[in-house]
């Protein structure tokens, strides 16, 4: 038992994964579907090897990751400062909050026709869609986090004569980091969801395109390779975000 | 003229449900009066304790004196100057959470000393006050890793390191266990004797006021009026049970606040 406890964060997920693969294989065997309709793990693994060997998988993965990264960074670079302004200024909030709330529920996918018209075919429309899907939740989470700061900290700042820069750098930014990190974790996951959908329409590369293209070629094993890689990268992104973004003072 | 003059302070909160008023109430309809004509004066170097039942506006009064709250009628004059905003010379010690949680004890202490250019002087000053409150070895700890009593001491040290002219303490012993409460109370008394600066403390512990204060102010229930102001010159260290005068004063205060029997 002790050994299991010690290694549980590695061991237990491995056990579940093995069980999931066994279940998958069992369903394939007993479902009666052909390998073309529902390929089993071994076939998908072969497909994975093929796609890795000829370099297509790497190319598509890099294309998707590039779009998510650029779109996400743009959303962070714009969203956090604007969120801070909205959180600090009542006037700015009253002017722009309804606009944010109006644009936020419009699915990024609804922007696809306009995005293609404005940005053409290629990386840019996909980047724009990912930016949209991350931007509004980041701006909102940041503004709420600023408004949630304990007013005592602002009194301390007044008492010790903070100027405006110090209020932002020594008070607001450190105070909102825990909330903002949670928002970033959620929004990069959404961005990763959206990139696949965007790539099915607007571009000729990326994991979404790989899935669509394989479907057209009736290669369901490649389709499943694409799905597995997407899930696996999503998992990795979350682990990385968790690892690197722990504020040292924890939640308070 | 006294060091701190508080002249005819009236303060009311807006309350839309307040449609009626008592005949002797001069507040506007729609408002609830919190402080009613507070008129006080304190001498320099005094330890003043403001006592009162909960909700009587004593914290509000302290916020007004400190310059955090400016929406009131009347005047606060400190050292011949009207108080219009908080001053970095008059430090406020909060009930809790006064330390910035993302900064270590050391970084928190530096907040009030940002205008000192010479690092050596600054470091010496910080060490002096860390030693005063016996937090040596905890300089690089974050507030969340300190106990409640240590956090309170760290905040006291941060306030004292500024060498403020006035120290405001808003129920500084709330949330501490009894023993820590007594220890920190003793430390504050010692510190007051050591630095000799004016301290104004709000508390609802009558014993604390009797042990610590040079002057006691008692406020009534809302709207807060001054029920009593008394200068205390009992010798220190004080013991309420051994000093007849103190225990009589305690019973008098209890009676005044509506408690007739004290075990």
Kindly summarize this structure in a few lines.
The complex is a heterodimer of chains A (252) and B (263). With 252 residues, chain A is mostly helical. Chain A has helices spanning 2-6, 8-31, 41-53, 56-88, 90-103, 112-119, 123-147, 151-159, 164-199, 207-216, 220-244.
Key structural traits:
heterodimer, A: 252 residues, mainly alpha, MetI-like fold, 2 domains, globular, B: 263 residues, alpha/beta, 6-stranded mixed β-sheet, 4-stranded antiparallel β-sheet, 7 helices, 24% strand
What do these coordinates show?
- The complex is a heterodimer of chains A (252) and B (263).
- Chain A has 252 residues and is mostly helical.
- Chain A has helices at residues 2-6, 8-31, 41-53, 56-88, 90-103, 112-119, 123-147, 151-159, 164-199, 207-216, 220-244.
- Chain A folds into two domains: 1-32; 39-244, MetI-like fold.
- Chain A is 80% helix and 0% strand.
- In chain A, helix 4 runs antiparallel to helix 5, helix 9 packs antiparallel against helix 11 (220-244) and helix 10 (207-216) packs antiparallel against helix 11 (220-244).
- Chain A is globular.
- The mean pLDDT of chain A is 89.
- Chain B has 263 residues and is of the alpha/beta class.
- Chain B has a domain at 102-163.
- Helix content of chain B is 31%, strand content 24%.
- Chain B has a six-stranded mixed sheet with strand order 6-7-8-3-9-10, sandwiched between helices. A four-stranded antiparallel sheet of chain B has the order 2-1-4-5, with helices on one face.
- Chain B is globular.
- The relative contact order of chain B is 0.17.
- The interface between A and B is medium-sized, with 19 and 19 residues.
Distance between the termini of chain A: 34 Å
Share of helix of chain B, binned: 25-40%
- Run of helices and strands of chain B: EEEHEEEHHHEHEHEEH
Q: Helix content range of the residues of chain A, please?
A: over 70%
CATH topology of the largest domain in chain A: MetI-like fold
The biggest sheet of chain B amounts to: 6 strands, mixed
Number of helices of chain A: 11
Radius of gyration of chain A: 23 Å
Shape call of chain A: globular
Main beta sheet strand tally, sense and closure of chain A: none
Spans of at least 5 consecutive residues with low confidence of chain B? none
Count of individual helical segments of chain B: 7
Q: Can you give the mean pLDDT of chain A?
A: 89
Rg of chain B, please? 19 Å
The low-confidence runs of chain A, each spanning 5 or more residues with pLDDT under 50, are: none
What is the H/E order of chain A? HHHHHHHHHHH
């Amino acid at each position: 038992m002790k050994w299991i406890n010690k290694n549980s964060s590695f061991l237990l997920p491995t056990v579940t994964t093995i069980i999931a693969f066994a279940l998958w294989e069992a369903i394939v065997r007993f479902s009666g579907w052909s390998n073309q309709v529902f390929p089993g793990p071994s076939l998908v693994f072969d497909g994975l090897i093929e796609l890795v060997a000829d370099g297509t998988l790497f190319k598509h993965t890099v294309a998707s990751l590039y779009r998510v990264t650029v779109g996400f960074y743009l959303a962070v670079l714009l969203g956090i400062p604007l969120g801070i302004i909205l959180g600090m200024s009542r006037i700015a909030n009253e002017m722009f909050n309804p606009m944010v709330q109006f644009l936020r529920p419009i699915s990024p996918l609804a922007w696809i026709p306009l995005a293609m018209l404005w940005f053409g075919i290629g990386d840019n429309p996909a980047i724009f869609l990912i930016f949209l899907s991350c931007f509004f939740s980041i701006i909102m989470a940041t503004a709420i986090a600023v408004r949630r700061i304990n007013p005592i900290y602002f009194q301390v700042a007044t008492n010790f004569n903070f100027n405006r820069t110090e209020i932002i750098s020594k008070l607001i930014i450190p105070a909102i980091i825990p909330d903002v990190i949670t928002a970033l974790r959620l929004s990069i996951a959404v961005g990763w969801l959206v990139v696949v959908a965007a790539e099915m329409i607007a571009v000729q590369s990326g994991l979404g395109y790989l899935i669509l293209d394989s479907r057209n070629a009736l290669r369901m094993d490649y389709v499943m390779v694409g799905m597995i890689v997407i899930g696996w990268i999503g998992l990795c992104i979350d682990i990385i975000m968790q690892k690197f973004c722990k504020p040292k003072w924890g939640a308070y | 003229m006294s060091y701190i003059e508080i002249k005819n302070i009236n303060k009311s909160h807006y309350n839309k449900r307040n449609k009626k008023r008592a005949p002797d109430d001069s507040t506007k309809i729609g408002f609830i009066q919190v402080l009613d004509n507070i008129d006080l004066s304190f001498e320099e170097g005094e330890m003043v304790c403001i006592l009162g039942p909960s909700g009587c506006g004593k914290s509000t009064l302290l916020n007004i004196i400190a310059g955090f709250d400016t929406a009131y009628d009347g005047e606060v004059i400190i050292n011949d100057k009207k108080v219009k905003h908080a001053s970095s010379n008059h430090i406020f010690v909060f009930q809790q959470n006064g330390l910035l949680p993302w900064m270590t004890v050391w970084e928190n202490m530096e907040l009030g000393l940002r205008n000192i250019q010479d690092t050596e002087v600054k470091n010496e000053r910080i060490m002096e006050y860390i030693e005063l409150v016996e937090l040596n070895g905890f300089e690089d700890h974050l507030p969340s890793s300190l106990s409640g009593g240590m956090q309170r001491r760290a905040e006291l040290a941060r306030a004292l390191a500024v060498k403020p002219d006035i120290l405001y303490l808003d129920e500084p012993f709330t949330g501490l266990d009894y023993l820590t409460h007594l220890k920190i109370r003793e430390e504050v008394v010692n510190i007051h004797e050591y630095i000799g600066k004016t301290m104004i403390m709000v508390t609802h512990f009558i014993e604390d006021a009797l042990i610590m204060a040079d002057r006691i102010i008692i406020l009534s229930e809302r709207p807060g009026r001054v029920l009593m102001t008394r200068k205390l010159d009992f010798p220190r260290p004080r013991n309420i049970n051994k000093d007849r005068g103190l225990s009589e004063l305690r019973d008098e205060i209890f009676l005044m606040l509506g408690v007739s029997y004290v075990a």
